[in-house]
Amino acid sequence: MRYAQVSGALETDGQIGGMLAACDASHREVWRLKVYENPRRPELEGDVQDVWFRSLRVEGGKLLIENERGERFEVDPATRQVCRRPAPAAAPRSDLDPLSGQPPIHLPG
Q1: pTM metric for this prediction
Q2: 31-to-75, 79, 81, 94, 108 alpha-carbon distances in Å
Q3: What pLDDT digit, counting tens, does each position of 28-79 carry?
Q4: CA distance 97 to 100
Q5: Adjacency order of strands within the sheet including 72-76
Q6: CB 57 within 8 A of CB 76
Q7: Rounded distance between C-alpha atoms, residue 75 and residue 70, angstroms
Q8: DSSP per residue over 12-45, as a string?
């Protein structure tokens, strides 16, 4: 199987982004799955509302997806179950200046 993001159709899928497809060796779509909801607001231009996958990778038999909003999802291709994954922990903030690597200078007053 080959897994890839596909464009959804508003009429059948209800959204454009957020769709995953599984294709066989002959490139025939075997199944399609809505990974996350991405409803459109009619008062806004449509294409600026679409949220696409930023990454798609396989880990331990699961498909790991991160979208442009930074939301993360895990898809089990065998059961087609989608689970939301927590975002990675933020890197600890440092008191060091990122350019010089030195502590900031604090002037009195």
Answers
A1: 0.75
A2: 13, 11, 13, 46, 66
A3: 999 999 999 988 888 888 788 899 999 999 999 999 999 999 999 999 999 9
A4: 6
A5: 53-59, 62-67, 72-76, 81-85
A6: no
A7: 16
A8: TTS-SSSEEEEE-TT--EEEEEE-S--PPPTTS-
